[in-house]
Here is the input.
Amino acid sequence: MNECPALLLEGVYKSFGENKVLKGIDLTVAPHEVVCLIGASGSGKSTLLKCVNLVEPIDAGRVVVEGEEITAEGVDANRIRRRIGIVYQSFNLFPHMTVLRNITLAPREALGTDRVEAEKNARDLLERFGLFDKQDEYPDRLSGGQQQRVAIVRALAMRPHLMLLDEVTSALDPELVAEVLAVIRELAHTGMTMLIATHEMGFARDIADRVCFLEAGRILEQGQPEKIFTAPEHPRTRQFLGRIIEAGRL
Amino acid sequence: MSSASTVLFFAVIAVVVVLAPGSGVVAERFFNPSHLWQSLVGSEGNPSVLEAFLLNVKIFTVSEVFILILALVIAVVRGIPGPVFFPFRLVAVAYTDLFRGVPLILVLYMIGFGVPGLGLSFVSYLPEVTYGVISLVFVYSAYVAEVYRAGIESVHESQNAAARSLGLTRWQSLRFVVLPQAIRRVIPPLLNDFIGLQKDTALVSVLGSIEAARAAQIYSASEFNYASYVVAALLFVLITIPLARFTDRLIARDKRRREAGALA
Here is the structure.
């Protein structure tokens, strides 16, 4: 690898009280790579993403973004976060603002982009994701799928170098999942570096350059999707995927 | 059904009042038309209750502006995390505890008579009504700060998390994301406190200001008639009832919005 990794995790530990959620995570994500995290609920996928974005402070280990250790003392977390986009399961749009204002708020206030430019950029993004006519709507007038797409656009408006997606389709009605996945696919095609926690195994298999199977706060197995989904080595991975297939989700 | 029960209800009350042994005396002492009018517009030697009421209006208008600002500052200070800000949080908590605990009339006495007693050139020689306003601001901002705080805490933490994840600072998140939602939610209780404030302006009379209640008292003392109190009461009600209805409408509108939002 001739350039430094987009993201590097070394020995990341995280507990909530007695509950050890992450028990030594090592992970490298190369630029333009799409890595999917799979695993049962409670395996630590979401916590891992939150630690990368410094929403949760880690107990031990290092998180390095583009060569800069963000878990070091005295690092300006806000500056780092501006380079990392995160989208949550529950959209978390700002309900008192129009779609356009939701998207332009952070570029204008955090980056100091002027209004005209921020709005132009926002409209371009909305256009690209088929939401141009929704710019003046308030979030509660949109469907779940539309809201989640707006949330993705809102994160993209900060021109992040890395996107973290935390089970972004889990709160959606099944018929709305496809439109959101299409957006993520398009992002992958444009070379966006992404770390994706997901329960959509078909999607992970399709889009990921690499799949990591998390179990009880550790990455038990990782590799190309074909290998993980067709010939998993670890018995726990086989068991997990077996249950997924049984449930008709793969 | 509802109109029949309403008519019956008020008919019973009217009959009881009219048949009461002292009803004639009460009608003369409280509802004599000439006294009602005289106390409203004022007569020689007696101040007009209406004119005096304008002082109440001035007091609650000026006080409310300062209350809304000071209370917001207190609520925000109380929510600043981090050990460095502990003394500030402590002051905010002590402030709300103190001024919610002490009766307004005692605060009025202490500030209205205590501050002038200090003999400080810049705060001790103000008009007595100013000390009234200061006391109202102190007491009411303690209540209103708690209303704001409840509003701030009602905004789900995920909103703040989303704002911070986008790279906004804590302050930017508060200003653009949390406070606008919080304040919108607490407008009805804020108006409720505003109504309370309007009535409590009458207490400023203990410092010697001639506002509506004091003017009514002066009238009744010289004319031996209580119609002036009825006039003062009606003036207060005239102001508070529209505000109360307005508050109800806001609450109903918010409820409709929430329900519409839940369906979407």
The mean pLDDT of chain A is 91.
